[in-house]
């Protein structure tokens, strides 16, 4: 009997709550409609003002080492290490390159070397017809190409690094080993340019690093060659020198030293953001929910005031 009474009480309370909600909707329906309508208008206005964002993407393949000495050098042990010879595999070099591409030093060098700060911070919009950037003249003078320091100081390179990471990503597929470099920007031309700069710079840096190490090692090995007359050791030193010479020759033979482009970045015609319909729907939902919460607050307050007056 007690259970039945409790169940009936809960059902009555539930019906009462539902009745209260219906009363709120009925009494404040125009307020709810008005706020929801204003939120939808605000959503439309905001969605139309947001600039389109385009993505440029390049697919890269690790370059296989051409030198036949890689296998030989792995057997040379301590002497190869003493000579400063890099006997790491091609896979290790690619892993190093990918880590380097996301490093602070690499990105800051890229931004500083190519003067990307204005395109990163001062772009207001993009003219699709003329394919030109429109800069915010209150912070950057596009005619003199100078920052308006009084209004807003020139962004630091550290801040630029974190800003760049918001639109940049590099990843490698575990199954295929292919590397993807992606950039997002309101200008598809700028996005493509940045991807090309990243690919070019990593190849140049990895090439210069290996060439510098090879030249230092050759210099060391030639010195050791002059100081020994043992035939076996001289043969070993000649083999090491030959391996370094091949590294230098290979680096000079091609520009894409560590990562070769399979599918280059293009000036994309399709935007990836924003989803304007989603923005409008989100504003409508927020407006509707907010208006209902406000209506509940007004209803409860008026109800309390009424009870106080009657008492």
Explain how this protein is built:
- With 311 residues, this protein is an alpha+beta fold.
- The chain contains 11 helices and 9 strands.
- The chain has helices at 2-27, 29-49, 69-73, 78-82, 90-101, 104-114, 117-121, 157-165, 188-226, 231-253, 276-310, and strands at 53-62, 123-127, 132-135, 140-141, 146-147, 168-172, 179-185, 259-263, 271-273.
- The strands form 3 sheets. Strands 1, 6, 7, 8 and 9 form a 5-stranded antiparallel sheet that branches. A two-stranded antiparallel ribbon has the order 2-3. Strands 4-5 form a two-stranded antiparallel ribbon.
- Helix 5 (90-101) crosses helix 9 (188-226), helix 6 (104-114) crosses helix 8 (157-165) and helix 9 (188-226) runs antiparallel to helix 10.
- The longest helix is centred in the middle third of the chain and has 39 residues, at 188-226.
- It is elongated and about 105 Å long.
């Amino acid at each position: 009997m007690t259970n039945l009474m409790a169940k009936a009480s809960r059902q009555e309370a539930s019906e009462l709550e539902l009745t209260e909600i219906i009363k709120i909707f009925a009494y404040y329906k125009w307020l709810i409609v008005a706020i929801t309508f204003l939120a939808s208008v605000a959503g439309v206005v905001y969605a139309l003002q947001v600039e389109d964002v385009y993505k440029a993407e390049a697919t890269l393949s690790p370059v296989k080492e051409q030198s036949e000495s890689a296998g030989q050098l792995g057997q040379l042990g301590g002497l190869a290490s003493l000579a400063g010879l890099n006997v790491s595999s091609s896979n290790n070099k690619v892993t190093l390159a990918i880590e380097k591409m996301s490093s602070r030093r690499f990105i800051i060098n890229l931004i500083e070397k190519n003067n990307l700060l204005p395109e990163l911070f001062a772009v207001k919009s993009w003219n699709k017809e003329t394919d030109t950037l429109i800069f915010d003249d209150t912070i950057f003078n596009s005619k003199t190409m100078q920052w308006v320091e009084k209004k807003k100081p020139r962004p630091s390179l550290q801040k630029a690094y974190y800003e760049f990471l918001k639109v940049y990503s590099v990843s490698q597929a575990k199954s295929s080993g292919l590397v993807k470099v992606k950039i997002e920007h309101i200008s598809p031309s700028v996005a493509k340019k940045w991807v090309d700069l990243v690919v070019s710079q990593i190849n140049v840096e990895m090439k210069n690093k290996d060439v510098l190490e090879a030249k230092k090692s050759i210099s060391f090995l030639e010195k050791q060659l002059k100081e020994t007359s043992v035939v076996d050791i001289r043969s070993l030193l000649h083999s090491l020198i030959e391996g370094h010479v091949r590294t230098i020759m290979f680096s000079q033979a091609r520009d894409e030293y560590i990562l070769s482009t399979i599918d280059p970045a293009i000036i994309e015609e399709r935007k990836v953001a924003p989803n304007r319909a989603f923005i409008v729907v989100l504003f409508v939902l927020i407006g509707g929910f907010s208006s209902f919460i406000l209506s509940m607050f007004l209803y409860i307050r008026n109800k309390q005031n009424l009870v106080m007056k009657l008492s």
